[in-house]
Amino acid sequence: MNLEDFSVFRQRASSDGVLFYYTGEFSANVIGAMSDTVRERLEALGTPGRLGRKVFSTFMEMAQNILHYADETACEGGRIGALAVGQEHGKFYVLCGNPVRTDHVERLRARLDPLRRMTLDEIKAAYRDQLRSDTNAGDPISKGAGLGFLTVAREASEPIDYHIVFRADESTHAEFYLRAVI
Predict the structure, then answer these.
(1) What is the number of structural domains in the chain?
(2) 140: left (phi over 0), alpha (psi -120 to 50) or beta
(3) Using CA atoms, how far apart are residues 33 and 49, in angstroms rounded to an integer?
(4) CATH code of the domain covering residue 116
(5) Has residue 5 been placed in a domain?
(6) pLDDT in tens, 34-56
(7) Rounded to two decimals, what is the model's pTM?
(8) What is the number of other CB atoms lying within 10 angstroms of the CB of residue 45?
(9) What residues have CB less than 8 Å from 56, skipping those under 6 apart?
(10) Which of 65, 42, 45 is nearest to 54 (CA)?
């Protein structure tokens, strides 16, 4: 990419409302630096406190999901992914993408499809229930308490959206994309 191409990319990102974008390897240090940047961008925009907290919470949840769940065997031992925050039509969006093993795809769909159909009250109730239980012990796509997708859905103002793209060049990995509008 030459400097002219970069200038065009930067102008396009700005006109498309992109406030933050990162693609590469994820680590605790990288997430720390990203979170500082996102927090500063939200403050610079004058984002109201509650809205800013929802955007930031969603951003952190997606970053942690990439760090913990992106399949490291897909990319030479590193957990890689992409994460973006932007504004569109007066709302914020947070989206992420990362490689996943194809044998995890059905479990992802089984968690996300019901969330897309739930009301906010149902999501909040499921969140409270999940806090009280430990039903995900041993699940390779839910190493924590299983609250990640529930947190993202709870913060969103619209149903969360996801897309899974199967790679034509291999059968063991797919690309997982998740988007939340706040």
Answers:
(1) 1
(2) alpha
(3) 21
(4) 3.30.565.10
(5) no
(6) 999 999 999 999 999 999 999 99
(7) 0.86
(8) 12
(9) 35, 38, 39, 42
(10) 42
